[in-house]
Design brief:
Number of domains: 4
Bound molecules: calcium ion
Oligomer: single chain
Structural class: mainly beta
Number of strands: 58
Distance between the termini: 54 Å
Strand content: 35-45%
């Protein structure tokens, strides 16, 4: 960056506290503080410029004021970054990784064999007194189990005596440091942003803190994006008692001992486009949180090996009035998305929940929850489940397919205390094997028609949604789906843009039986989009003497909506575009030609096919030396 400006700012910074006021008037003076823990010449006593960077992120944090950037180069930083100051509106303090590989590590290396002493059991011990008592210890990157005492360790476990400050590690008898990398928890958090506002944290890799990867307590105006958090001792990220705006975006959070992302007692928090997976508890958890948004996250493989309790998304403990849109939850041990315990008036729209260990969508003890345009497929229990006084639910425009097949369960279950006020309409039900579609108010219904006799689902459909490739997790709709052009776009909570951000497409060959505007929106999380055509060309002849008559036949070409034009390029300068699939042409000159067919559908999507052709000289004529291609 601009060294001249940096120089000016540095002079100012070393000058006085009034700098933040000056910067507010002169935002162009914002400084960049360089940190490079891998540099041989780094110094926390130096200027923090590109030539002599700081060694620690903490030093950059200590000097940064509103508008500044702490730019951190790739290295491993064994520190907790505690933000000591807030930015100002429009002038945040930005912590940014300059490239991938900026690792904020929460552990200390205790691999040195001489540091360990044998005990009377298989455990070895060493004095250990880090800033934060270890909640976890790793052998060669693998978490050891916590033991209850120093004398009851088992193989691959640890115990920390927090009074005597002694760490015990049991790897089955040997010295833990011989042939192994042992890392023990030493710092509470990766980043701690408590009480701060106007902070941006961007691009860091945060590993194995004793507690939280990125901790945001009593915060506002915080953005945490593009970070990778793994092996947090509790939550990968935690927003506690935060107020709008807080943006948690584009992060990858995994292997937390608790939830990947926890949002607690907050409002106006947006979690968007994150991947949260392989955590021991939920991918994302909301508690006591309102007016927040969970958008477009991918939540998978969250699982506690000891008990089924881990959901992709858990909206829980009076978390009301939130928007849950466009998320994908799959392969979680418990339900994909659940709304629990007094979490009223949440709107779930355009989400996909598939192949989870319990329900696709589970609404329990929470009233007035709207489930609009979601897709539930292949979940072990019910696709959509309402129970325990989850009254006044709204279920419209959803697809429920092949849920509960192996457990004798249902695409939709509404328990006896949850049926009051239910509005269920315009959903698609499908089972590819025998089984009841619905359980409603204590009665099972084998078909949608039988369920419709209860007065529900006047516009429901029982039919194959024709997912593109359900076995591979692709639940986009294929042509001929039972979900096409039939959703109610006027229902409260409906989203015109689908799970992928695409708008409804009107399939001309499918009658528009939807309601609202437009009347051709589709049911489920995805809007069917026009597919490109397939071109297929046949020639009546591939060789012969000039003059050679050839008919090009494109009638085996196809399109989901219909081909509107066929273009034939015969390769000798003759080209024709027409609405019919056959064209004839006479070659008069010997040569080798390619005939190219291009078909175009009504949306302008094209596809091509080509065939080659050999025209020999006319009988008696000298073999032409002219050969084309
Ligand atoms: Ca449509
Ligand atoms: Ca249509
Ligand atoms: Ca098409």
């Amino acid at each position: 960056m601009l060294f001249g400006r940096l120089g000016v700012v540095r002079v100012c910074l070393f000058g006085a506290v009034v700098i933040s006021g000056l910067l507010a008037m002169h935002p162009a003076l914002a400084a960049t503080w360089n940190v490079n823990g891998a540099s041989a010449v780094c110094s926390d006593a130096g200027p923090g410029d590109a030539t002599t960077p700081f060694c620690t992120i903490g030093k950059g944090a200590a000097v940064a004021v509103a508008g500044d950037t702490v730019l951190v180069a790739p290295a491993t930083y064994r520190e907790q970054v505690t933000a000591p100051a807030s930015g100002l509106s429009g002038m945040p303090i930005t912590y940014r990784a300059s490239a991938p590989g900026v690792i904020v590590l929460g552990t200390l290396d205790v691999s040195d064999p001489l540091g360990w002493t044998p005990t009377g059991t298989n455990a070895w011990s060493r004095p250990y007194n880090p800033p934060s008592s270890p909640s976890q210890v790793f052998r060669d990157g693998v978490r050891l189990a916590p033991a209850a005492s120093a004398t009851t360790t088992t193989t691959d476990s640890f115990y920390f005596d927090s009074v005597a400050k002694v760490l015990y590690v049991d790897i089955g008898g040997g010295n833990p440091g011989v042939g192994h990398a042992i890392e023990a928890g030493a710092r509470q958090h990766g980043f701690r942003l408590d009480g701060r506002s106007e902070i941006v944290v961007d691009g860091f890799e945060i590993r194995a803190p004793n507690n939280v990867g990125v901790r945001m307590g009593t915060c506002s105006a915080i953005t945490v994006r593009n970070c990778k958090v793994s092996y947090a001792g509790t939550f990968g990220m935690q927003a506690l008692s935060c107020t709008t705006p807080v943006l948690i975006q584009g992060n990858d959070v995994s292997l937390s001992k608790s939830e990947g992302i926890r949002i607690d007692t907050s409002s106006g928090v947006t979690a968007q486009g994150n991947a949260s997976h392989d955590n021991i508890e939920h991918g994302i958890g909301l508690r006591r949180t309102t007016q927040s948004q969970v958008l477009g996250n991918t939540l998978y493989a969250n699982k506690d090996p000891n008990i089924m309790r881990s959901n992709g998304l858990d909206v829980d403990v009076t978390s009301t009035d939130n928007l849950v849109k466009g998320n994908t939850a799959y392969g979680n041990d418990d339900s994909g998305i659940q709304v629990y315990a007094g979490s009223a008036r949440n709107v779930l729209v355009r989400n996909v929940s598939r192949d989870n260990g319990d329900h696709g969508f589970d609404v329990n003890g929470s009233t007035d929850v709207k489930l609009i345009s979601n897709t539930a497929y292949g979940n072990a229990s019910n696709g959509f489940n309402f129970e325990n006084l989850a009254i006044n639910g709204v279920l419209e425009n959803n697809i429920a397919a092949d849920n509960g097949n192996l457990r004798g369960l249902y695409n939709l279950r509404v328990g006896t205390t949850a049926s009051t006020g239910l509005v269920a309409d315009r959903n698609v039900y499908w089972k590819s094997v025998a089984g009841d579609q619905v359980s409603y108010n204590g009665t099972a219904y084998a078909t949608l028609a039988l369920f419709q006799a209860t007065g529900n689902e006047p516009n429901g459909v029982e039919g194959d949604p024709r997912f593109r490739n359900a076995g591979a997790g692709d639940l986009h709709l294929a042509f001929g789906s039972s979900a096409l052009d039939s959703a109610d776009a006027g229902v409260a909570g409906f989203s015109l843009d689908d799970h992928d951000g695409l708008l409804p497409f009107d399939v001309p060959t499918v009658a528009d039986t939807g309601a609202g505007i437009p009347p051709y929106a589709d049911r489920g999380a995805y809007e069917y989009q026009d597919s490109p055509p397939e071109a297929a060309l046949r020639l009546s002849s591939h060789s012969g003497r000039a003059p050679l008559d050839v008919t090009a036949d494109a009638s085996a070409s196809s399109d989901d909506v219909g081909i509107v034009s066929y273009t034939f390029d015969f390769g000798d300068g003759t080209q024709m575009t027409q609405a019919t699939p056959k064209a004839s042409h006479t070659y008069t000159t010997a040569g080798r030609y390619f005939v190219v067919l291009t078909v175009r559908d009504g949306a302008g999507l094209t596809a091509s096919d080509r065939k080659h052709l050999n025209v020999r000289s006319a009988r008696g004529a000298t073999e032409s030396a002219t050969r084309r291609r």
